[in-house]
């Protein structure tokens, strides 16, 4: 295992109490000596965790309404689904972040829930839950398959950065499009962000959030509505198993979870300088998914795009302590999940343009950093992390991923990294010859 902040543990520092030897699996590394979570945390980490959760709830989480309508689920079943996602991902994210001292964000499979909009209608929900359980078991087994986890770790750093940039760029595009719809509101948020970056960089995104809320109110752009304050009660669902559900749900959900979440999720972490062992994370998410399935929720996976908020420099000035931002995200996710209906209503108050601007600006630094890492020629310490002059592999990844192309139900992010690796391999053969 290698993490970028291990540079802080030089040979000289390793002799002091600032570093410690740490053994994970069969790998021994030097890392900053562990302090308590409360010692490591910082207000910027709390804010990063909150913003990651707010953007998640304002975006992917509202997809539950589409699934509810398509599958004719009750309000109680839909809120239980959301409860299972938020509370259990919060728990597993906190556990993994504390275990690895890296910012590990867990979420549900967004490609999976998109699949369920079309695959769930006509299927008894008990059979769907049975498929969720089988998919959880398959994800756990993937975490025990060493060749697969080694393949994930072998992705070159600059190609992981290119994949991350392609995942993030649409958020910047949407922020610009929001400016075209609400120029005054979004313009105020943009000006606030760049002024904040100059004079108070740690608080730039917080200022954007405050200005966005205030400007939305002053401009009459938000949608005030009664917000019910009531806890969400999970509904335990007894699973049923059928061949139809295994073929139509369990196998596709597993494939989408791996290609659409885990692969880009590990790419995001690598792009930000963190390389956790994939196996333990896959197994932990498999166990968490099994627990979530019993309250009607599909696969819980590794976070991808939102992970940039808790793993980038704005989350904490010290890379070795950014894990605290992911822990705060887990805490807020649990709190939001306990009152799922209440917080979904709250997210509906702000206009979509303000939320698009907040997401695009919060992820802008990560977007720029990933683009720079993807195309900066050089050579990393590992010999496999930096782009080679004239290489087109990173450009291919970005082009294929942004195209949105999908084959066999597998999304563009997977085909993007596959195409980039193929070009990278061909270029390596040419250089060797």
UniProtKB/TrEMBL annotation:
A Pfam family the protein falls into: BenE
TM ranges: 44-66, 78-98, 105-123, 129-148, 155-173, 179-196, 203-225, 245-269, 281-306, 326-347, 354-375, 395-423
GO cellular component annotations of the record: plasma membrane
The keyword Transmembrane is annotated on this UniProt entry: yes
Entry superkingdom: Bacteria
InterPro entries xrefs: Benzoate_Transporter (IPR004711)
Keywords: Membrane, Transmembrane, Transmembrane helix
Molecular-function GO term, any one: benzoate transmembrane transporter activity
Record flagged with keyword Acetylation: no
PANTHER family found in the cross-reference section: INNER MEMBRANE PROTEIN YDCO, MFS FAMILY TRANSPORTER, PREDICTED SUBSTRATE BENZOATE
Stored NCBIfam families: benE (TIGR00843)
Protein name from the UniProt record: Benzoate membrane transport protein, putative
Organism: Deinococcus radiodurans (strain ATCC 13939 / DSM 20539 / JCM 16871 / CCUG 27074 / LMG 4051 / NBRC 15346 / NCIMB 9279 / VKM B-1422 / R1)
